[in-house]
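Example noted here:
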Amino acid sequence: MNDDTNNGANGQFTGVVPLDVVAKEGGLSVMKGILEGRLPGAAMAKTLNFWLTTAEEGLIVFTGTPTVDHLNPLGTIHGGWAATIMDSSLACAVMTMIKPGEGYTTVEFKLNLTRPILPDMGKLACEGRVVHCGRTIATSEAYLRDSSGKLLAHGTETCAIFPIDKLKR
């Protein structure tokens, strides 16, 4: 289930990574595979115009450009755009820590918007970092900034880690 169009950075495309690949490779390899265009990224990233730009152990960066297609009725970028790029960075930072045979899911996340996001701001970067990774629980933090480094939003997330077989249908 992949969209074969390469619309992202580094030839990235969208679709669903097969769970058996995640089970075999582990999270960091999968995230690097998305970055390199070997594996698909999330389809909604294409819709919201953001792409994976860094994948390292415990660190993820997504870069995106919100457009007028993401406006709320008052003319600023909808908070859902910020929440989605933040959740992606927060969760994928945790994903870089999961071992082969493990899966994860977000349990909760919190977001603080510190200033309005406008459609003419250009590229924004969201950096997510793991704060703690245990056997069953991981936490992460993320910061969304404009090109001059101004903080637009920050947040935290808690993820549960479990055997990946629990995700298989």
Remarks:
- Confidence is low (pLDDT under 50) at residues 1-7.
